TrEMBL record:
UniProt cross-references to InterPro entries, sorted A to Z: Glyco_trans_1
Any one biological process term the GO annotation gives: carbohydrate derivative metabolic process
SUPFAM superfamilies: UDP-Glycosyltransferase/glycogen phosphorylase
Name of the protein: Glycosyl transferase family 1 domain-containing protein
Chain ranges of the Glycosyl transferase family domain: 204-366
Species this protein is from: Pseudomonas frederiksbergensis
Pfam families hit by this protein: Glycos_transf_1
GO MF: glycosyltransferase activity
């Protein structure tokens, strides 16, 4: 098959990283693959992942259109970042295809897209969520408030899903909204990811040193860093024996806030800001425990949690969303309602029995290596494409019948009656496969 895959390609994109793995696996299966970069124009010149195939920017319209016209299927990697996915939205409208959905909250993607399209955006909001939500949607003053006010009432999952001929996602917890919006089939498969710096001996107990706890990625409030500091500070044994390390991009105001909190609380906190891949890999290898807490949880899968398990690290997660679906024996789960106390218990348990971190990390590593593979993902994509293409034909037939009924001036109420719906159920393509 010839596949045209739309994805962010910039090196800093985790979605680009997983797509590189999948593309290279598809190439070994003898498929022809063309990758289209989807970042906003000012990012297109930055260094990209090496996909091993033709790479074009989405702005090269004639070339992209030519590749799309000769493709068996278009595949769109979509997440909640407008600067990374601007071109994906543009081409998804022009050439619908399979959406690989990485987040079940797409509010930031939508807000970025809506900046120059406010009337169209308001129409979409009203269509899916009603006039009351539309009236207040753009009023939030900051990201935290915006997420809190819209993540349940208007996540915009439906907006992207409704444009897809089928959807592949990476956990089941957010699938209801996809099924409400996408006429085609839905597939759930584990995210593909790797840990190139992982070694089997990395999780051996490190003598009598302090227990090293690590949080990686963009440092923000939903990573629950303040809760980790509070849990460590609540016990003198933990204060003496835990070193907490943050590695990732952080705003100066957040860095000051966390540093001051740690100082007042008597917690050893090391903030390294954003680092290169080699330094990040070294930090992960050196850690005993990795905190991948998220609240609220918005993603279909967590690359950082998967990476932590692939490195063989004891991984702390919030018992919600994607993380809740990880088998209990492979991670340490924390309740969002009892966060600090649960963290305190976990830290004390790991401190009192240092070997337990290595034990759970090794189990998680073995499971993750079998689960989050490019081979699994490529096989699922190969299975999905013919199902989606068949569904596309059926959906076209249904659209034809709907057009005829509309020309008969049938009311929406009539179209919802059992006499109409039951015969049309033979065309149902809206299922989880």
């Amino acid at each position: 098959m010839k596949l045209v895959i739309f994805t962010p390609a910039v090196k800093s994109s985790a979605i680009g990283r997983m797509t590189r793995l999948v593309v290279r696996e598809l190439l070994t299966h003898q498929h022809q693959v063309v990758v289209i970069r989807t970042e906003s124009p000012h990012l297109l010149a930055r260094e990209s992942h090496d996909f091993g195939c033709t790479l074009l920017p989405w702005t090269s319209e004639a070339e992209v259109a030519q590749e799309v016209a000769s493709a068996d299927c278009c595949v769109y990697q979509i997440g909640d970042n407008y600067e990374f996915h601007e071109g994906g939205i543009v081409w998804l409208v022009r050439a619908p295809g399979i959406v690989c959905l990485h987040d079940f909250f797409l509010g930031h993607l939508f807000r970025g897209w809506a900046q120059q399209r406010r009337d169209e955006a308001n129409h979409i909001l009203t269509q899916w969520y009603g006039t009351k939500i539309t009236a207040n949607y753009f009023s939030a003053c900051d990201s935290t408030t915006f997420i809190r006010e819209t993540r349940e009432s208007a996540p915009l999952t439906e907006w992207i899903s409704s444009m897809a001929t089928g959807v592949i996602t990476h956990s089941a917890w957010g699938c209801d909204r996809i099924l409400q919006a996408c006429a085609g089939p839905l597939f759930v498969t584990p995210l593909a990811y790797d840990a190139p710096g992982a070694v089997d001996t990395a999780n051996e107990p490190k003598g009598n040193r302090k227990l090293k706890v690590l949080t990686i990625g963009h440092i923000n409030s939903n990573k629950r860093i303040e809760s980790c500091i509070e849990a460590i500070s609540s016990n003198s044994l933990l204060r003496r024996n835990i070193s907490y390390h943050l590695v990732g991009a952080i705003l100066p105001s957040m860095e000051r806030k966390l540093s001051e909190l740690a100082t007042v609380s008597g917690v050893e906190l090391i903030i390294s800001n954003e680092v290169d891949d080699a330094t990040l890999s070294e930090a992960i290898r050196d850690a005993d425990v990795i905190s991948c807490l998220r609240w609220p949880s918005l993603e279909a899968a967590s690359a950082s949690a998967i990476e932590a398990m692939l490195y063989g690290k004891a991984t702390i997660v919030t018992n919600t969303g994607f993380y809740k679906e990880i088998p209990d024996q492979y991670v340490l789960k924390v309740s969002s309602d009892n966060e600090v106390e649960d963290l305190k218990k976990i830290f004390l348990s790991l401190q009192n029995k240092r070997s337990s971190a290595a034990d759970i990390g090794k189990q998680a590593q073995l499971w993750a290596r079998e689960t989050f593979t490019a081979e699994n993902y490529a096989r699922k994509l190969e299975q999905a494409i013919p199902v989606v293409l068949r569904a596309k034909v059926i959906i076209s037939a249904v659209d034809h019948f709907a057009t005829i009924i509309d020309k008969w001036s049938a009311s929406p109420e009539l179209l919802r009656t059992p006499e109409i719906l039951e015969p049309l159920s033979i065309f149902n393509t809206n299922t989880i496969v």
